[in-house]
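Follow-up to my earlier ticket, as requested here are the two runs.
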Amino acid sequence: MSGPVEVRQVSEYVWEIPKTGPMLVPGRIYADRAIMDQLLAEQPKAEWNALLQVRNVACLPGICRFSLAMADIHPGYGFPIGGVGAFDAGEGIVTVAGVGFDCNCGVRAMRTGLSRREVEARKAELAEALFRGVPAGLGSEGDIRLNRREVEDLLRTGARFVLRRGLGIEEDLEYIEENGCIAGAEPANVSEKAKQRQFRQVGTLGSGNHYIEVQYVDEIHDGEAARAYGLALDAVLVAVHTGSRALGHQIGTDYLPKLKRASERYRLPVRERELVGAPIGSPEGREYISAMCCGINCAFANRQAIGHLARRCVSGVFGIPPESVRLLYDVGHNTAKFERHRVDGAERLLLVHRKGATRAFGPGSPDIPAAYRDVGQPVLVGGTMGTCSYILRGTPAGMEETFGSAVHGAGRLKSRTQALREYRGERVVAELRARGILVRSHSLRGTAEEAPGAYKDVTAVVDVMEGAGVSRKVARLRPMICVKG
């Protein structure tokens, strides 16, 4: 199957790639006209494009209903970023491409109990405290030193491992997806090299698009949900965006060749190098899933540790108890998880791959905190350090249409290579400072790669998802401080 991908519009914010040739289901993309025009314009320029990837995923065995792409769609490895694929647990496959190399990269948002005015008065001091207090940057190492046995304990128990070491409060676990620990992790299926890379990386931010951001609420869109989430105008939050660091990357690296061999053994279609996989119930499939669950738990533990380090920074600067900085929610966006969803009127067990897409369960779900059950799960959407971010909530329509999934961020508009040609880190920092946003970065090159202009308009992205009914805006957040790896 070659040639440009045909797309047809089925509603204002929904587009479909018709089921043709080896496709087992149609493709479905959430986009407005501008986003779709950009995707279509990219097709002739490169073989590696997001629409082609949506079509390729639609050819994978056991996929249910649609190969989905959220409004922050852009090309990834095999799966598009913003891609969602749900596979029948008995007939489907698991693929590294549907998870990615930064397993369970995600966002944690914490309420500080402080107002914008209070933080503005000591903004530079807080920026310095966070910059010094949380290890960050490429290959960064922290003060938490683990041996092999302790790493394996962390991979089994996730955030609770860090909590037992005094980093956090018991209440935190209630407000983490999966309560901070997913079942099915088997450290024996994680390589020694991956474990060794984690000996000193717990509690470290990393580099790339990872960040700590101090934000304030500048607009409330949904008063009921905002009250449930404890949000008010000018309230200050601290957001952490990071994942499983080198361990998660090594798991992906280790299993890519293993699943390539499995694809050949089980005669699975491979339409892009990273789009290899194995039947979910096969020995290779079960092994990768158990290792991937270790990566998920590693990321939960890492954000738990960083979250508490950030708590201490806020506490030290403002003289408030660390426990007064409360966790709003922590959710991942690079995972494959077993979930039950209704498909064609019947409930089925599915392995839902979310690649740069966030779980977004609707009201009434028993899998979200009791305090949020009436309004739906918080969805934490990162924008850019120069624009804004959003907190959304899941909806019943999203449960029906996207297997309870939504966008995870703005989505890249320009590649990192292109961003480096167009932006300079020093200028980005200076321009944001002139607008009252303090950026502390461990790499000016990384700052250029993450320049606000390298990303789509996050407001347009979340507006698409709201217009389609998949998620609802709760609050808009503006940046005050951004610490980059």
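Run two:
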Amino acid sequence: MLEHTLSDEEHSQILQTIEMFEAITQTQPDDYQSLEILKEAYQKVGRHEDSLKASRKLAEAYFNAGSYTPAMQECEVILVKEPNAPEILAMLGEIEARLQASGAAIASTGGQAGLTANPAQASKGEGSLIDMAGARGGDTGKIANLAERGDDHLAKFLIVQQLFPEEEVLTALESTKQLNKDLNGQALAVSLLDSLCKGNVDRLDLVLSALIDRTKFAYVPLEYYDTDRQIAPMLPDYLTLGRLFVPFDLVSRTMMVACCNPFDATGREAVQQSLDYTVAWYLARPSSIVKNLQSIYRLETRA
């Protein structure tokens, strides 16, 4: 049953969410976070068969990621509806065997070995679909240095991957740092990628592709998404305008946020600690993020 009767606007928004995340999961079938959102969206509009299919894909995605506890939970959800599903029973048996083997390994190594129950934690520091580092109730002292924006890490990545000459990157980095220094009010931050690509779409696409491969962030074509303008103000301006973060949709207890620098771990942690929601992170074009923020906050278009 639905939690409440959806308005026409809510129903339309959820259908758009479904369309968008169906496209994402077709190209990224192991994107467990997008599958979770898609499953919940199906449930909200009463498409229970589709929700069950999403659960199957989600169980497989978690299993492939080595995240056996949530994979087991998804299997149990499916077996409530289809108690004799052979492939799910087989997966559940494999999961239990691996968890038992993990328990034996932990016992033999004094608790230092084992299988990862949370792939977000496993990829901490390496980029991931969602980074819950310092989740709610954590040590806020860890995010005290909001001056750290991840631009140095991004610059190093661009140089190491030989996407731009080192001198060009360092010049753009210094300029970006100066422009983003002491931002206040409703001042929009500047993206290092924008500074380097200068509107060159092909060059930007190459960089985004490399970032997706490296960080495993899902990509969202924000320029085609009907952003929910009501949710951005749930975050303070210094995180949206000041760090180019765009909350673009809210499904159940998950807020979807687009960014253009996946290495800004400090900013992402600050977002998580500012909200009582799970945060799902996506990569988007800097220009699309800027246009969305200008529209949401009614700011003048940059020259």
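The only thing I checked on run two: Strands lie at 218-219, 246-251, 254-259, 278-283. Let me know what else you need.
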